[in-house]
Amino acid sequence: MRKDSLVCFRLSKNMRESLAKVAQEDKRSLSSMIEIVLSHYLKERKALKGVKKEKRQYPRKAVSVPAFINQCGSGETKLHTGSVTNISLGGVHVSIPQDVPDEILVDPDKTKFEIIFTLPNESRPIRLTCEPRRVVDSKEALHVGASFVDADFNSYKALHTYLT
């Protein structure tokens, strides 16, 4: 959505502090948080035109945690580094530095990969098997949107607890 308008308005100190606190918890700017709140309100009232319905089954949560990535089916354990940037109960978005070999995610014979990471405020690692759904190559990183295809019970339970 193109942001081509500037809007100024007054808030109570309490309202501003509350919005700033929520924005900080979600690691967003204050203006981004205000836009989200207004957008949700307008969608609820069916007053916002041009906004498409969310296609995802589960809502995403923004995070920034380091991760290890291992290609499934290769017969060897070769961990590569990456960063989980958002996650849901159905999938994950991972940013992988450009120096990681491309075949880890785009080789048609080896489409699944395992991701290992630790959720914020948790000590046990989460292990999930993923299948890439969308891969976007940029100058600094490879961005991968992947769906979960397998997880052990404890990992999925920890993920569910974190997200709900």
Explain what the structure shows.
- There is one protein chain.
- The chain has a 6-stranded antiparallel β-barrel with strand order 1-2-3-6-5-4.
- A hairpin with a 3-residue loop joins strand 5 (126-137) and strand 6 (141-151).
- Helix content is 26%, strand content 34%.
- Helix 1 (13-25) packs across helix 2.
- The protein is built from 4 helices and 6 strands, in the order H-H-E-E-E-H-E-E-E-H.
- With 164 residues, it is an alpha+beta fold.
- The longest helix has 15 residues, at 30-44.
- It has 2 domains: 13-44; 61-163, Thrombin, subunit H (Beta Barrel).
**How much helicity do the residues have?**
25-40%
Number of domains: 2
- Main sheet: strand order: 1-2-3-6-5-4
The number of strands is 6
Q: How would you briefly describe this protein structure?
A:
With about 160 residues, the chain is α+β, with helices and mostly antiparallel strands. About 25% of the residues lie in helices and about 35% in strands.
Question: Which secondary structure elements does this structure contain, and how are they paired or packed?
Answer:
Layout: H1 13-25, H2 30-44, E1 61-71, E2 79-87, E3 91-97, H3 103-106, E4 113-117, E5 126-137, E6 141-151, H4 153-163
Antiparallel strand pairs: 1-2, 1-4, 2-3, 3-6, 4-5, 5-6
Helix pairs in contact: 1-2
